[in-house]
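Figure 2 data, in text form.
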Amino acid sequence: MTSPCLSETLAVTHGITEESPPLDLAALRIKAASLAPEVVGGGVLALTGPLGAGKTTVVQALVQSLGYQGSVKSPSFVLQHLYQTPDLTIEHWDLYRLLDATPEQVLTLLRDIGQQGSLVLLEWPEPLISCGWGRDVPIWQLSAPDESSRILTRWEPRI
């Protein structure tokens, strides 16, 4: 479940544009792949949700739908993986290890995110959002109402 603080922030800065019905993992991959045209030009997309909600599954489907042929893994231990397609560089960040970082540490990291004019996919963006970042960034929130289904809620900036 998303933290109450994040939910309150999203309610002020973003509006829900879509909420999927419960999806199994295969349907979640298909849904994510169908949304790839929305990010093909680059930009930033933040993915939030509890452990096991499907954030990496969504990233895998997006990256592969955009033409990357290799394996797509969570960068939990290295913070970032880069994927190159014929048309786009994709930065895949996982900020889970930074949930307890100081604001100064997080803001220092912000200098490195998205510096290549690429598509930036951020898992666990909460450290950045808590520093005031992301008011203009689409956020895809994943939830797992039970072990076999996932719900994808799309939040778009109000600005």
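Caption note: The helical segments are 4-13, 25-34, 55-65, 103-110, 126-129.
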